[in-house]
Structure to design on (784 residues):
């Protein structure tokens, strides 16, 4: 095996996003033991930083030792028991995955399906609740990474409270990029991932549960099917005074997350959200100027992940290859029914900068001119520049 | 939050072990996407390195995106279905955990229990198989991290073949430190962890399955209860040509593992095993010279993890605190019934050096003299030095 030389990449896909140099420095810190008093302080800092991000006072706020999908699985398998019905909003890959995990723990997934790119209207949930028998929880994807759709959460929470059922929210592509107000919105279980708007390498899943959710975990009739993700056991390590060994924490990843949270804290969430909004608007203006229209409607477009439809006349795979090979830029293709039909462009965390927006638009223009689907040089860049000049 | 300054630690506990500077360098490499062609090559290299370590030709040889316990869970939940009986050797924390996971997937754990520190005699398994109904698998811990016991595997494999049942082996504290011969011994499912004898940070679980085990996975009557750890889905990303997205791989951790595998390859497995044996013998000679006797009997003592009983006259917790605070040395205490009664000293991977052995013995002597349980200065160091002079 030879030395590994990573090529230079501008990460503008659906994740991972660019990682700050300070975070790369932190991840290479020599290790201490996972029960070392120093490390327990690192965990405390991570918990405090995550509470700030989730806008919650929840004591149970941790980083699950796995990627975002492990966070999803932890959220579901701890709440859902065999026979439990869960209403799941299905409008993309991650809603589909939520429903699959509900079924794998013996639950019944009542799927509310809408076309990919659309959102689940809160009244659809209210209506389904009136038709169905007892329901334990509603599970929704706040930011659907496969479509770029921005799901409203707060109105659904009001419905859940009325029916006394739990609300589980996937905030993988939203946390740290757009507001996620766990306490104010009344979210009971919320999880995310580190490699999106937190700009930390993949490998941890932030997760928070409020007292209502913890009480459901505590009062289960059956043990959680997963030992690794059993939150009643993990709580002994993360949140109780005894700090009892459960499994060995991914120490280096937690060093990285701690530093990523510091970087976020220094910028401040309001500035960070404004930065994501502005860069997204500028990129969108540029993309639309060259005929790439967003899939979701204007009222539900995520600033963190833009999904644009690619005209059939463009060989989308060839363009992505050229972006990667010639310009070192990664963007994402479509998944499932959107395969070959859309591009997914992430402007998350450290990746969301004016320079990156202009670099990508310039590269797309170059390729488009070469292949004949862009006729006016500079048109995308000008549209973006206009947004920046107005936006400030 | 302030800058994090990690204290200097000599990691001689049950894991994590010391990480090579080259591995810390590799983990801080800027990221590429998890579907980037460059990254797929990293995965290929990791697979090749792991096959070498496991001494296997198994195509399905991967790193699970979680710590060692996730590897254990992946091994069990993919093989065991509701109603399946599994014989589990229980002689410490990790056998107990295996049995718990078998039960959590609706399996029946037939536990063969022996005292902690002892091994499961192969004939105990043969006898139990004659008494019990159909059994799907036998699960054993090769290197029991909670006791330092070294379980023979090959004779059990012969029994499994005779009865046509699968053999699942936990190689968390053995892989890379003592021989693990997956193909030659006929192990069907074998998993490990990165933070022990591989000297890589915790966060990945090497896992290998042979065709017999994969066929059991393929012919399940029910879907695997875990979506995150479902090997039939993960195979599409790791081992098939399509490299289909399942979950975002922990990219930085895989960079680290690749480099750790290179370091191992450069040393060579025979030299590495010899180094672990020699340092362990020297440490043991030193410890016995100051009255600390090993828990397991001479025929089943691991060189990677020494478990010594602490005389009741010594305040073991106070000594560990002094080691940590005064000397920056981490060793482990006992778990479960051994709590307060033993020390667990790891000499794994980069931590297994003559310098570390002498440093620890010197520190223990200093503390022992101060507290009156060592009377002859230099006695432990001399015993170790003698082993080194004879051993070479």
């Amino acid at each position: 095996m030879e030395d590994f030389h990573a090529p230079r990449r501008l990460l503008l896909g659906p994740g991972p996003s660019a990682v700050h140099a300070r975070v790369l420095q932190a991840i290479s810190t020599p290790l201490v033991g996972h029960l070392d008093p120093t490390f327990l302080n690192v965990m405390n800092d991570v918990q405090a930083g995550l509470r700030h991000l989730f806008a919650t006072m929840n004591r149970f706020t941790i980083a699950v030792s796995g990627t975002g999908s492990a966070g999803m699985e932890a959220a579901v398998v701890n709440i859902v028991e065999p026979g439990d019905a869960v209403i799941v909003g299905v409008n993309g890959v991650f809603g589909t995955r939520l429903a699959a995990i509900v079924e794998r723990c013996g639950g019944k997934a009542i799927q509310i399906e809408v076309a990919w790119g659309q959102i689940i209207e809160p009244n659809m949930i209210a209506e389904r609740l009136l038709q169905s028998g007892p329901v334990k929880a509603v599970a929704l994807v706040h930011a659907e990474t496969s479509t770029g759709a921005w799901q409203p959460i707060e109105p659904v929470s009001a419905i859940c409270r009325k029916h006394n059922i739990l609300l589980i929210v996937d905030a993988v592509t939203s946390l740290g990029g757009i507001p996620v107000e766990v306490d104010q919105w009344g979210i009971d279980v919320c999880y995310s991932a580190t490699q999106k708007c937190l700009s930390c390498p993949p490998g941890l899943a932030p997760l928070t549960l409020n007292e209502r959710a913890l009480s459901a975990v505590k009062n289960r009739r059956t043990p959680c099917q997963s030992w690794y993700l059993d939150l009643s056991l993990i709580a002994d390590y993360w949140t109780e005074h005894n700090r009892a060994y459960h499994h060995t924490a991914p120490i280096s990843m937690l060093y990285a997350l701690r530093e990523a949270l510091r970087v976020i804290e220094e910028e401040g969430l309001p500035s960070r959200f404004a930065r994501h909004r502005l860069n997204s608007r500028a990129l969108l203006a540029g993309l639309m100027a060259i005929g790439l229209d967003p899939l979701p409607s204007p009222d539900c477009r995520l600033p963190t992940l833009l999904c644009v439809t690619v005209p059939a006349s463009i060989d989308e795979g060839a363009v992505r290859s050229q972006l990667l090979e010639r310009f070192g830029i990664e963007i994402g293709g479509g998944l499932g029914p959107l395969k070959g039909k859309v591009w997914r462009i992430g402007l998350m965390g450290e990746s969301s900068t004016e320079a990156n927006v202009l670099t990508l638009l310039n590269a797309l223009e170059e390729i488009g001119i070469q292949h004949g689907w862009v006729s006016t040089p500079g048109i995308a860049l000008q549209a973006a520049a206009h947004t920046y000049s107005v936006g400030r």
User: Anything to note?
Assistant: The first strand of chain B starts at residue 10 and ends at 11.
